[in-house]
Amino acid sequence: MTADSSAVAGEAAVSGAAVKTAPRPAPSGGGRSVGGRIAELASGGLLRVFLIVVGLFWLVPTVGLLISSLRTADDLNSSGWWKVFTSPAKLTFDNYDNLLSNSDMTNSLVNSLLITIPATVLVVVVGALAGYAFAWMDFPGRDWWFVGVVGLLVVPVQVALLPIAKLFGDIGIFGSIFGVILFHAGFGLPFAVFLLRNFFAEIPKELLEAARLDGAGELRLFFRVVMPLGGPAIASLGIFQFLWVWNDMLIALIFADADSQPITVALQTQVRQFGSNVDILAPGAFISMVIPLAVFFAFQRQFVSGVMAGAVK
């Protein structure tokens, strides 16, 4: 065999190998499976339309409560809130004037703020300090103490109602705002410590060691390095705790008296007399719902960042 024929044979072999190893063309749209078509359709505009429709239905009770709070008592007792679209001129703010002139409702609204804000701040501060200690400080029995904290997450609130009520009665804080704050803080701390400890543990160790080499103590390290990095998780915890305490009624019914009852208990008392004071009940319920919504939307960006940071390690 000559050199030319050998070269030609080699080129043919290479060409044959290239033909054999060439990738198959992608199947056309007509060959796509039914499941693939459904998944593509669902991930497109159809899914967005569905979510928008669900969101609108979800907002219907909120819109209805807002409109009801702007209608007179006679209109509320005679027809549904959707009738307002036929006569929008009947809307009035007199119900809110009646609400603000009702001392029981205004005092309960103030009590809700006096309970929720300290309970939230206390849980966030103590939970952050304890979470940092469990994540980056060495002390005897650290892991066992953390296991105990995790175990407290499964303790139901109902189990502690009677013992803590008796304890608060013995020390003289039963029926006071301070007692309600302590109860919420005690049951909010296990989740706070668990959440923040796991978040703080993801902070790079080299960053903390560099700060210690620069002479930073534990408190300075916590406030200057850990707290700014843990902002999203702390904001998420603050939102959760605020919503839990604000919307609570069980603990307030047991541990709060008539002078320290929050807005949830005041609304429940008004419901018992439904029919004679619906013009106060509707705006009170709407205000009780708007305040936690405002808190959530104010920290929405940090809340989403904290959730996403906890989802990816």
Quick recap:
The protein is mostly helical. The protein has 16 helices and no strands. It has helices at about 5-20, 35-40, 45-70, 75-80, 95-100, 105-135, 140-150, 155-170, 175-200, 205-215, 220-230, 230-245, 250-255, 265-270, 280-300, 300-310.
Describe the structure.
This protein is mainly alpha-helical and 313 residues long. The protein folds into 2 domains: 35-92, no CATH class; 97-311, MetI-like fold (Orthogonal Bundle). Helices cover 75% and strands 0% of the residues. It contains 16 helices and no strands. The protein has helices at 3-21, 34-42, 45-69, 73-78, 94-100, 103-136, 142-152, 157-171, 177-200, 205-213, 218-229, 231-246, 250-255, 263-272, 278-298, 300-311. Helix 6 runs antiparallel to helix 14 and helix 14 runs antiparallel to helix 15 (278-298). The chain is globular, with a radius of gyration of 31 Å. The protein starts with a helix and ends with a helix.
CATH superfamily of the largest domain: MetI-like
List low-confidence stretches. Answer: 1-9, 11-22, 308-313
Query: How would you state the average pLDDT, rounded?
Result: 80
Shape assignment: globular
| Domain unit count | 2
List the helices and strands and how they pair.
Elements: H1 3-21, H2 34-42, H3 45-69, H4 73-78, H5 94-100, H6 103-136, H7 142-152, H8 157-171, H9 177-200, H10 205-213, H11 218-229, H12 231-246, H13 250-255, H14 263-272, H15 278-298, H16 300-311
